Amino acid sequence: MDPARLARLAEKTDLAALLDRLEGMSAEDLDRLVGPGRSGGDGARGGAARPPYAPPAPDADFYGLFERQLTDDQQRARRVVRRFMVDEVAPVINDYWERGEMPFEIVPGFRDALHEAFGPNPAERYCTDGFLTGLVSMEIPRVDPSVGTFLGVHWGLCLYSIWRFGSDAQKERWIGPLERFEAIGSWALTEPEHGSDAALGLETTASRDGDTWTLNGAKKWSGNATFADVTVIWARDTADGNVKGFLVEKGTPGFHVDKLEGKIAKRAVQNVDIRLENVEVPEASRLPGVRTFKDVAGQLATARAGVSWEACGMAMGLYEATLDYCTRRTQFGKPIAGFQLVQEGLVRMLGNVVAIQATVLGLGQLYEEHERLHERASLAKVWCVDKMRETAQIGRGLLGGNGILLEHDVARLFADAEAVYSYEGSREMNVLITGRAITGLSAFV
């Protein structure tokens, strides 16, 4: 006991007599005298014993937007994918991410979960049901964005290109194997010297001689390409100057693929440098549905919308991981979630999450309005990724030094946010696309 308190008490009473009386009292009498929980050493100081802290489960759907608006089938699909990601991917992904390797062991189960989520003819539904595809594209990066990119390139870019632009023979050959993950797809547009200006600056060439096309040039990034069985290559026709698409199979002479090293984001994604040196492909490997770059741009608008859903899932995952950490981490004798500044940060994160959710749900209702999807997807990509990136920054800060350790998951999502910030059109390009739509004036040059 505090000596000063004892001195003040001694001025008012005979301490020796008081202590003698207290020593002879039973525990029950002491409880009645001073109140329950204060007579023993286990109670809370100065009050009744506090029950153990049991934090509420993190709820990233704080407004119930998904709970109220989704059909039973959409809810079921979300649950299937969520369960697989939590049970099978979450326990292993940090190790693969740190080593910069693709977790091939999860692919069979991933395929099965996707087939269960999309039902019969999963590839067709993936390509035609933009809203359900968005929901799945949200749930995957809620746990890990690298796995989301694996699917986004495999189905969202490669398979979708064949489904949208391919001949009947190409669809017959590739859609089934890609759908069943018996073959893996990649997709290559960006070049070492051309990203944002690919529409005008694309240097990879395609020259036709009879029924043979010869491709020359270089590509960069192209997820999955180190192990893909087929890669969609976009090249400029030397005859008419238009961009055309070609299916290049693994092992084709002159098709060289090297893994891109030194990344700090989405490390489990196998990005590459591609060199095309007199790569010959038959006319039967050209995608006949592509006439100009405008066809490619239409596909990119759909992919850009998908990035908005990805940002939503990442923001949800960041909030959930940060809240879980803050309720478990104890400093100064209590969970840090009980401090005002921590709660302020958590509420800012949650506000961003709810706002992003509202945006993608609104965007999801507009997929059929193709003529305006381009600028609407650009606005969603800019705003959702900005807010997700802010959410990542807050979460990383709330974890303090532990915010740079993979074991808490926030660090991985924080780093991956930088990749999402840049791809499917830089922030600046998407701002200008939206700005042109609302002003009628182009500010690109």
Tell me about this structure.
- Its cofactor is FAD.
- Belongs to the acyl-CoA dehydrogenase family.
- Residues 30-53 are annotated as: Disordered.
- Residues 296-438 form the Acyl-CoA dehydrogenase/oxidase C-terminal domain.
- The structure is a single chain.
- This protein has 445 residues and is of the alpha+beta class.
- It has 17 helices and nine strands.
- The strands form two sheets. Strands 1, 2, 3, 4, 5, 6 and 7 form a seven-stranded mixed beta sheet that branches. A two-stranded antiparallel ribbon has the order 8-9.
- A hairpin with a 2-residue loop joins strand 2 (205-209) and strand 3.
- Helix 14 (340-364) packs antiparallel against helix 15.
- The termini are far apart.
Low-pLDDT stretches: 35-47
Oligomer: single chain
Q: What is the number of helices? A: 17
How many strands in all? 9
Structural class: alpha+beta
What is the CA–CA distance across the termini? 76 Å
Largest sheet: 7 strands, mixed
Percentage of residues assigned to helices: 40-55%
How much of the residues is beta strand, in percent?
A: 5-15%
How do the SSEs run, as a string of H and E? HHHHHHHHHHHEHEEEEEEHEEHHHH
**Any idea what the radius of gyration is?**
29 Å
Kindly state the mean pLDDT as a whole number?
92
Overall, the morphology is elongated
